[in-house]
C-alpha cells in the first residue's frame, strides 16, 4: 500500500470540485470517470489510514482510562496502608508511654487533642453565649464558651472536652506529604 501525501480533506475537495466541473459541463463524464476512479481509490485508502489512527487513539484512551482507574485504586490502597501504619505507631507509642521518637526517617510526637465544647443542654446556656439566628433558633457561641471554660468560668449546659491524642509526624518526607500529615 503506497503512502498518500495529500489529506483526506484535500481529496474530498478535489472530488467535489470535479463533480462541480462535470455538472457545469466543463468536463465530460467520460473524461472525469478515470479521475473519479483514482480519487475514489485515494479517498478509500486515506479513510482506511485515518480510521486506523482513530481506532488506535480510541484504544489508547480506553487503556489510559483503565490504567488511571487502576492507579487510583493503588493510590487509595497506599493511603489506607499509610494511615494504618500511622495509627500503629501511635498505639505502640501510647502503650510504651513515649511522647516523642526521633529517627532518621522523621520524628513522631504524641500531642494532646484540642479542647472543644460539649453542649449538654442548650436551654441551660446563658444568653450571652447564644446567637439567635434565625430568631427562633438557638446557636451556642462555641468559641466564646470555650474561652470562658478555659478561663475557669462555669457555663451551665456546657463542658470542655479534650479530643483524642494525635500523632504528628515531621521530617524525612516530601513537603507535600509532610503538610498533609500535619493537617490530619
Could you characterize what this model shows?
The protein folds into 2 domains: 8-84; 99-183, no CATH class. 5% of the residues are buried. Strands 1-2-7 form a 3-stranded antiparallel beta sheet. It has a two-stranded antiparallel sheet with strand order 3-6. A two-stranded antiparallel ribbon has the order 4-5. Residues 178-184 have low confidence and may be disordered. It starts with 7 loop residues before the first helix and ends with a helix. With 184 residues, the chain is α+β, with helices and mostly antiparallel strands. Helix 1 runs antiparallel to helix 2. The chain has 4 helices and 7 strands, in the order H-H-E-E-E-E-E-H-E-E-H. Helices cover 56% and strands 17% of the residues. The chain is elongated.
- Gap from first CA to last CA: 62 Å
Largest sheet: 3 strands, antiparallel
Strand content is: 15-25%
List how many beta strands DSSP finds: 7
Helix count, per DSSP?
4
Q: What share of the residues lie within helices?
A: 55-70%
Low-confidence stretches: 178-184
Average of pLDDT: 86
Shape: elongated
Report the order of strands and helices: HHEEEEEHEEH
* Domains, number: 2
Which class do the helix and strand fractions yield? Answer: alpha+beta
- Gyration radius, rounded: 37 Å
Strand ordering within the main sheet: 1-2-7
Features:
two-stranded antiparallel sheet; single chain; disordered C terminus; 184 residues; alpha+beta
Amino acid at each position: 500500500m503506497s503512502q498518500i501525501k495529500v489529506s483526506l480533506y484535500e481529496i474530498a475537495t478535489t472530488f467535489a470540485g470535479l463533480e462541480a466541473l462535470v455538472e457545469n459541463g466543463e468536463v465530460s463524464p467520460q473524461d472525469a470517470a478515470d479521475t473519479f476512479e483514482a480519487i475514489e481509490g485515494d479517498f478509500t485508502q486515506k479513510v482506511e489510514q485515518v480510521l486506523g489512527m482513530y481506532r488506535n487513539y480510541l484504544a489508547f484512551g480506553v487503556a489510559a482510562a483503565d490504567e488511571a482507574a487502576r492507579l487510583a485504586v493503588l493510590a487509595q490502597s497506599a493511603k489506607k496502608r499509610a494511615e494504618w501504619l500511622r495509627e500503629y505507631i501511635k498505639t505502640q507509642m501510647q502503650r510504651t508511654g513515649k511522647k516523642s521518637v526521633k529517627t532518621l526517617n522523621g520524628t513522631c510526637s504524641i500531642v494532646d487533642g484540642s479542647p472543644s465544647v460539649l453542649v449538654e443542654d442548650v436551654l441551660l446556656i446563658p444568653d450571652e453565649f447564644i446567637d439567635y439566628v434565625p430568631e427562633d433558633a438557638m446557636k451556642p457561641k462555641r468559641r466564646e464558651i470555650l474561652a470562658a471554660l478555659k478561663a475557669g468560668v462555669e457555663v451551665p449546659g456546657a463542658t470542655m472536652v479534650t479530643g483524642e491524642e494525635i500523632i504528628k509526624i515531621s521530617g524525612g518526607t516530601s513537603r507535600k506529604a509532610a503538610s498533609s500529615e500535619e493537617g490530619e
